[in-house]
Amino acid sequence: MIDIGGVGVFLGLDVGKSTHHGHGLTSAGKKVFDKPLPNGEPQLRAVFDKLMSKFGTVLAIVDQPASIGALPLTVARDAGCQVAYLPGLAMRRIADLYPGQAKTDSRDAAVIADAARTLRSLELADEITAELTMLVGFDQDLAGEANRTSHRVRGLLPQFHPSLERVPLVWASSSTRTTLKRSGSVGGSIPGEDRVMARPSPYPAELRERAVRMVAEVRPNYPTEWAAMKAVTAKLGIGAAETGRTWVRKAEVDTGRRPGVTSDEAAESKRLKAENAEPRRANEILKATSAFFATELDRPSKHS
User: Fold this and answer.
1) pLDDT digit string, tens, across residues 3-54
2) With CB atoms 3.0 to 4.6 Å apart as the test, which of 28, 109, 196, 303 could cross-link to 14 if both were Cys?
3) Cα(79)–Cα(21) distance, integer angstroms
4) pLDDT for 170-206, tens place per residue?
5) pTM for the predicted model, two decimal places
6) Domains detected in the chain
7) Which residues lie below 8 Å from residue 25, measured CB to CB, with a gap of 6+?
8) By C-alpha distance, which of 23, 26, 34, 29 is closest to 6?
């Protein structure tokens, strides 16, 4: 963990293919540098030396440590600067907290510098570590007890009637259904299981829209569209270029530039599917309940 207490200037670098943009802030937040930087060793070294001679310790921060960010980091380290890495996805989420929606190199460099200036490391004492360990263990005990209870209930239900084996799952929460299926207690499909929502995307809609716009903007600068997608997804901290390609294709379908099912049509189809599944789910419950009571009525009474 870097000790930022003695840092004189936080230099955020928004790295690019041919040029970078640097934004320098003092520990008090005063801007002391805001200029484009050529991607050349002599020019970069001159900037680092000048800042170090005036402010002392310089911390250079980038959101891409490899490929296009390798040279400025190497020169900064060789010049005697401290270096740090701010993950691209974290940088984009922090940027959403700042005013304005424009995606510019100057703004990104300022966000990187300010994030490094304001973020603080978390020092965990032994007492806090012990409390966290106890809480995690308690959570694991609760999960184990819930699993054991599910197994006990599952074992008791068939003693009344086989059809009741699936009935309680209709009222169970989605997390309980997931736990039962993972534990092996449930085989086959569950009534209403198709209503469980898929895991939401880890990327906000604003980021997806920004990626699509950037691919269209930088496409003329690359030999292929795939190369442009790879560059944009890397710059925005998106895990895979294929993710960006999916967003671009979906946007093309939604705007009519490519044939296919639009997002609105897919949402409507999903809604209709859920509505059609409701009667089937109710029918499953009625069948199971009817079978149970029919068995109870046919059973001879002990008092007859």
Assistant:
1) 677 899 999 998 887 788 999 999 888 999 998 988 888 889 999 999 999 9
2) 109
3) 18
4) 344 444 444 444 444 444 444 444 444 445 566 777 8
5) 0.41
6) 9-118 (3.30.420.40), 126-195 (no CATH), 205-260 (1.10.10.10)
7) 9, 10, 12, 31, 32, 110, 113, 114, 117
8) 26
